[in-house]
Design brief:
alpha+beta, two-stranded antiparallel sheet, rod-shaped
């Protein structure tokens, strides 16, 4: 009786990763590979949203009162 051996299966080997070369930083803060500059648009960094309630506002009369107080305090310090 003959014994039949199974052929050993090949082990998967990692494929080398493709590198795009040097990385370039763009003025908006994102980075892109040197070879990819014309091909791929870099992802923009998100800008924080500014709401109207986040900005403190003063009425005109309160602004002028504060301005007068500041000018008087500057005169006293001279």
């Amino acid at each position: 009786m003959a014994v039949v051996k199974k052929a050993a299966s090949k082990k998967p080997t990692p494929t080398p990763t493709r590198k795009s070369g040097p990385v370039v930083a763009l003025p908006n803060g994102s980075t892109v590979g040197l070879r990819d500059i014309g091909k791929v648009k870099p992802t923009p960094k998100p800008k924080p949203k500014v709401t109207a309630s986040a900005i403190p506002t003063k009425s005109d009369s309160q602004y002028f009162k504060d301005q007068k107080k500041f000018i008087e305090s500057r005169k006293k310090n001279k």
